[in-house]
Design brief:
By secondary structure, the chain is of the alpha/beta class. The chain has helices at 2-11, 28-31, 34-41, 45-50, 81-90, 105-114, 128-139, 158-170; strands at 19-22, 53-59, 73-74, 79-80, 97-102, 117-120, 145-148. Strands 1-7-2-5-6 form a 5-stranded parallel beta sheet, with helices on both faces. Strand 5, helix 6 (105-114) and strand 6 (117-120) form a beta-alpha-beta unit. It is globular, with a radius of gyration of 16 Å.
């Protein structure tokens, strides 16, 4: 109950901040736990409408261990991995905009086919977080929360993205 009171207080705060979060640490088992299901149930449409959440998927072609990984076909239809990630991210209910930050035209094309906005970033950018920040700047976007969704997680549950975004929307200390 103390946590709920704190969440209500922080949700009513007037300060706008952009927070970065990575959802790669949330397993499906975690997102199905009773407390997470309760937390997901507590999301309201007024919070979703009033606050903006952008999900950015960093995806680069030049992986050291497996070059071209985002374009590798997955599943019976041979859909590129990045398309699976984009579709899962678009299925998240609190996300208002999905961007794919990439350094390769083929990844950009696959992302746009799946319904995301592709943002071309410099291939020399070293980390995914730096790529997310660059894409946010290039797109000229602003949001209350920016969620960094890992581009190599084709099975990410949309509820995991919702959960991270909702925690950040409700708790200014997160």
């Amino acid at each position: 109950s103390r946590r709920r009171r704190r969440a209500r207080r922080s949700a009513s705060a007037t300060r706008r901040r952009a927070w970065f979060a990575s959802v790669d640490f949330l397993s499906p088992a975690f997102t199905q736990s009773p407390c997470v299901r309760l937390r997901r149930h507590q999301m309201t449409s007024s919070v979703r409408a009033a606050r903006s959440v952008i999900a950015i998927i960093p995806s680069r072609f030049g992986s050291t261990r497996l070059p071209g990984k985002p374009l590798l076909p997955i599943g019976p239809h041979g859909t590129p991995m990045i398309e699976h990630v984009v579709r899962a991210t678009l299925a998240a209910s609190v996300v208002s905009r999905v961007l794919v930050a990439t350094d390769h035209e083929a990844i950009a094309a696959a992302a746009e086919r799946a319904g995301a906005e592709a943002i071309m970033t410099d291939g020399a950018i070293a980390t995914g977080t730096d790529r997310v920040a660059a894409a946010l700047h290039i797109a000229g976007a602003s949001a209350d929360v920016v969620v960094n969704v890992q581009g190599d997680e084709p099975l990410i549950p949309p509820g995991s993205i919702d959960l991270v975004a909702q925690i950040l929307l409700n708790d200014s200390s997160a």
